[in-house]
Structure formats: structure tokens, C-alpha cells
Amino acid sequence: MKPRKNDLLPSGRRYKSVPALMNAQNTPAKVREKVQKLAASTRVVDELCRMRTRAGLTQAQIADRIGCTQSRISKVEGSVDRDLSLGEIFDYVKASGSQISIGIGKPLTHVQSVKAHAAGIRKHLRSLADLAKKHDELEPEIKAFFGEAFFNLLKILSECQGAMERASGETELEVFSHREESDASALEATTESRSRSEKMQSAG
Q1: What was the pLDDT predicted at 148?
Q2: Element holding 74 (H helix, E strand)
Q3: What is this structure's pTM?
Q4: Which end of the chain has fewer CB atoms < 10 Å from its terminal CB, N or C?
């Protein structure tokens, strides 16, 4: 069945994401699966495109900075992650003045990620401390930053700890509430049973 002409016209609606668009249009499951696979295979390519646009560069302009043709840039941005070379990624980062982090392998757990970030924070703070030793004029600013970082880290830990305690408290409250209902039902049943027994004794 061919699509009708009106179906091909822009609807004028705007969607925040492709999944939102597919949900609104009742896209078939097979199409959704293909879109998800394509998105998963072009995450790095998509990020390179965003790096270029954030820098306000056209394909021709970034090609000029890298030293290649615009058609080459078009080919890179139309490829999949598997076809990219590290050299191409490096060229984009350098030409756009951006940064990119790429993880290869099994995703880290939450605990492993926190430990990895903590190690990175310690490394950079140690480097700042070394700068303060070498440059007296930087020491006041670095000390102030240390105080700010200390406060922010404590705030993050406090917020997360509080969220965990609230979740635990809500669970306990829910269990307690159910227990109260159970106890009330048991008490009601006992009272009703006693009432029946007393009536039977009176009748006898």
C-alpha cells in the first residue's frame, strides 16, 4: 500500500526525540528495533557531528581545518562507529576544540565508576596542590577552590545518603501500615467471634 500524499507532508509537530516521534506515530516494532540498532552503531559519529555544530563549523570549514575535502567529512559523518579511525576522531577533537571520552569493553558498575572518578579527582587535586606550591600567587585561589570542592562533595554525599534513607523509611512505613491493617483485621475477627460465642451462650 502506497502512502497517501497527505501522509508525506510535514505535520508541523515537534518531538524532543526520535523515540517520542515513533511513539506518537505508532511505529511498528521492527522499525523501532532497526532505529535502535542504527543509533547504537553511530554514537561516536553522532558525537563528532555535535562537536562540529557546537563549534559553529560547517563540513567545509572543518575539512579546511583538518586538511581534507568536504566530501571526506560527509563520508565520515555518514558512516558507522566501526568504520572510524582514531586519527579521524583526533582530527575532529582538535579542529573543533572539543573533548571526547570513549569507553571500550564491558560497562563499569556504579561502584567501579565512582572509584574511577574518585581516582581522577584525586589526581587533579594533587596537581592543583603542586601548582600552589610552585606559584604563590595561585595558592589563595586554589585553597578557595579546595574549600568549594570539599563542600560540594559533602553535599553530593549528603543528598544521596538522604535519598537512600527516605527510600528505606518509605518501605518501613509501608510495611508498618500493612501490619496495622493486618492487626486491625485480626482484632475485628476476634471481636466478632467473641460476640457470636456470647450470643450462642445466651441463647442456650
Answers
A1: 95
A2: helix 70-77
A3: 0.52
A4: N
